[in-house]
Design a protein that fits this description.
The structure is a homodimer of 336-residue chains. Chain A has 336 residues and is mainly α. The first copy, chain A, folds into two domains: 7-191 and 300-330, HUPs (Rossmann fold, 3-Layer(aba) Sandwich), CATH 3.40.50.620; 211-296, Tyrosyl-Transfer RNA Synthetase. Chain A has helices spanning 20-36, 45-49, 56-73, 89-98, 104-109, 111-119, 128-131, 133-143, 156-173, 214-222, 243-251, 255-267, 272-298, 301-330, and strands at 7-13, 38-44, 80-84, 148-150, 182-184. In chain A, helix 1 links the parallel strand 1 and strand 2 (38-44). In chain A, helix 4 (89-98) runs parallel beside helix 14 (301-330), helix 10 (214-222) runs antiparallel to helix 13 and helix 11 crosses helix 13. Chain A is globular. The interface between A and B is large, with 53 and 53 residues. Chains A, B: It holds the Pfam family tRNA-synt_1b. Chains A, B: This is Tryptophan--tRNA ligase.
Chain lengths: 336, 336
């Protein structure tokens, strides 16, 4: 190819079906990226294991659920390669290799890891796999020779650490065997939960699943956090931190009308019922077809599995070629 | 098979050719084990990397050197499977899996690791791969379903940690997918260096290589540490800590005569020259044929490589079957 597309790697831990927060934060971008980039979507079941050895059933059963979500929102397996981490041995091989090129102290300094250790209250009993996962992510990224990685703001240090490892490998090899990586932090911030909490999460019970029924959507919109001080319709209301407007920002195709509604809401005279009715309609219009496609596909899980299997085979060839190339460049023994 | 042989795994880091200390401590046992056990010999280039990223050339060039040593002393590739760690992806896969079943604190408590961190003066800058190597060894061992592991006294904690991981895997799976392991600590202690230091090592310059020439052997015996207080032949001499007697214990086939010589030496009247002459003869007789076979084989490295390649292919099938079995037992996703 004279002008190969840049390679992008994203993916999801297979710990639960995806929700509209995933759509706003990443899936929507992936629909664009699959046209402009060579895109790999990693079903990260091994990474999910790092803090889910107590619930492997969950990690397993969500492999096809997440794949279903991808296909339901319009990921095209001809344009994007959907692949399963635990069936790609070269990722583990590169991980084990990279662990020799990073110190324990450096892993412990990684702000993302430090924050997550704190949040999960691991203390000293952090699983070794969890401490090592920046090296595993470096393996995932470099195995595909990805150069573009969409990440949340809090994950930028992972990319920094990946580039450190890449530079150490290239320096040791004496040639540029791995390209450095650029983090792309999406403009759209993180979608809040319906209760206004910063993080939308199934386990926090504040998410709207991509598979939500019409009734579930309406119920979620009804109980959605707006402006607790906006008691009477004629009072001025606040738009910032108002979940309904955050969702309208993310999903309403008529952004001019959203801006107009914001103005009215701020002035006073626009009730929550009106904006919620609009959001309900917007979400129903968006999620209806997604739900229908998902339901249709879920009746043919053999097809979904075939998509993942074929993607994994494609990914296997690519990642094994990278492992061979890296070990050769480093000067490890090769059979002649 | 109605009575399958027990499986034994041993091997060597590929950081240098082997010496007579390796022979006395392990190779000799392997010649017996290959008759009674299903024996796998792992050329541990990935483990060698954990503290040799600065000298990968050494790790690489010694792969065939160690294999040559095996064949030269009589390891039979029809009876023992010689295989290369970096070409066995399932070892890395199992390692990454096991890292989720062991905490960082537990790895840091491992006495072998603590001692080696201290000895290597890593401090906080210990490579993550080095901290994680007990999990990697558990992967090596279990991948072959080995139940018998010959180890030095200082490595017993590694086996303990392996069994901890095995029990966690079996408990999580709810069935005995991996057999527990027994450490075999050889009766023959560690052979001292020719200068009397406890450890024989090429890098310490106190070793006799299996490939040593006749002159090198004689020179080594001549400068060998005996009893520094045994200045005159008629003085009583000390046998304990006397390297010549340690080597006669290890290599002289006439142990009755060695005991007789020890008595004479202790009484006084037996000179160092006499016992050194005897040891020189013993070592020449032992190493002559080894050196000749080694020289012959080194002229046909294609054959040596073929032995390692075929062993690695055999090992690949076995270890990949284990990975599939373990992930299935744990309930990770499997393609139907």
């Amino acid at each position: 190819m004279s002008h190969p597309k840049p390679v992008i790697l994203t993916g999801d831990r297979t710990t639960g079906p995806l929700h509209i927060g995933h759509y706003a934060g990443s899936l929507r971008n992936r629909l664009r990226f699959q046209l402009s980039h060579e895109q790999y979507l990693l079903l990260a079941d091994m990474q999910a294991l790092t803090d889910n050895t107590g619930d492997i059933k969950k990690v397993c059963s969500n492999v096809l659920e997440v794949a279903l979500d991808y296909l339901a929102v319009g990921i095209d397996p001809q344009q994007s390669t959907i692949c399963l981490q635990s069936q790609l041995p070269a990722l583990a091989e590169l991980s084990m290799l990279y662990l020799n090129f990073v110190t324990v102290a450096r892993l412990e300094r990684n702000p993302t890891i430090r924050e997550e250790i704190r949040a999960r209250e691991f203390g000293r009993d952090i699983p070794a796999g969890f401490l090592c996962y920046p090296a595993a992510q470096a393996a995932d990224i470099t195995a595909f020779k990805a150069t573009v990685i969409p990440v949340g703001e809090d994950q930028a240090p992972i990319i920094e650490q990946t580039n450190e490892i890449i530079r150490r490998i290239n320096t040791t090899a004496g040639l540029v065997v791995l390209p450095e990586v650029t983090a792309v932090i999406p403009k759209s911030g993180r979608l809040p939960g319906i209760n206004g909490k910063a993080k939308m999460s199934k386990s926090l019970g504040n998410a709207i699943a991509l598979s939500a029924s019409a009734d579930e959507i309406s119920a979620a919109v009804k109980q959605m956090f707006t402006d607790p001080k906006h008691l009477r319709i004629e009072d001025p209301g606040q738009v910032e931190g108002n979940v309904v407007f955050s969702y309208l920002d993310a999903f309403d195709e008529d952004q001019d009308e959203v801006e107009h509604l914001k103005t009215l809401y701020r002035q006073g005279g626009l009730g929550d019922a009106v904006i919620k009715r609009r959001l309900d309609e917007v979400l129903q219009n968006f999620l209806g077809p997604v739900r229908d496609r998902r339901a249709l596909l879920s009746r043919d899980l053999g097809y979904v599995q075939q998509v993942v299997r074929e993607g994994t085979e494609r990914a296997r060839a690519i990642t094994e070629a990278t492992y061979a190339e890296v070990t050769r460049a480093l000067g490890l023994f090769q059979f002649q």
